[in-house]
């Protein structure tokens, strides 16, 4: 079972962004998924499912939103390297 979120927006908004309604709504879904991933509220897999794509494609598109695919501190990265 899937649930829906209804978001009201001005009818002229997609046109103002030079997008179709479908393009705007898809971009809005991506923006929400990316932000929730960036906030560490969703895994990459769950975020990918939200936008109906695979995990690898989701991760490869993060740069369009200025979000790093891997967000580790220097200490976390060094610990990962030591455990590799």
UniProtKB/TrEMBL annotation:
Pfam families: UPF0175. InterPro entries: UPF0175 (IPR005368). This is Transcriptional regulator, Fis family. The lineage of its organism: Bacteria, Bacillati, Cyanobacteriota, Cyanophyceae, Nostocales.
